[in-house]
Amino acid sequence: MAEIVAVVSLRADAVGGGAPIFIVPDEQKLEETSFLLEKILDASAHNLKNGTIILVDRR
Question: For the chain, how many structural domains are there in total?
């Protein structure tokens, strides 16, 4: 079972839930923040192609 451990998004109104949510101002920060969190959390980043990237732990 996979677990969403973080969400990084361009739009605050498009995300919600129990995982930590990081709102960023542009595409470049979206990618930078997501890939940094991917390394820190030892998770997999998945781009939803709508301005949101989720980080998933598959342990």
Answer: 1
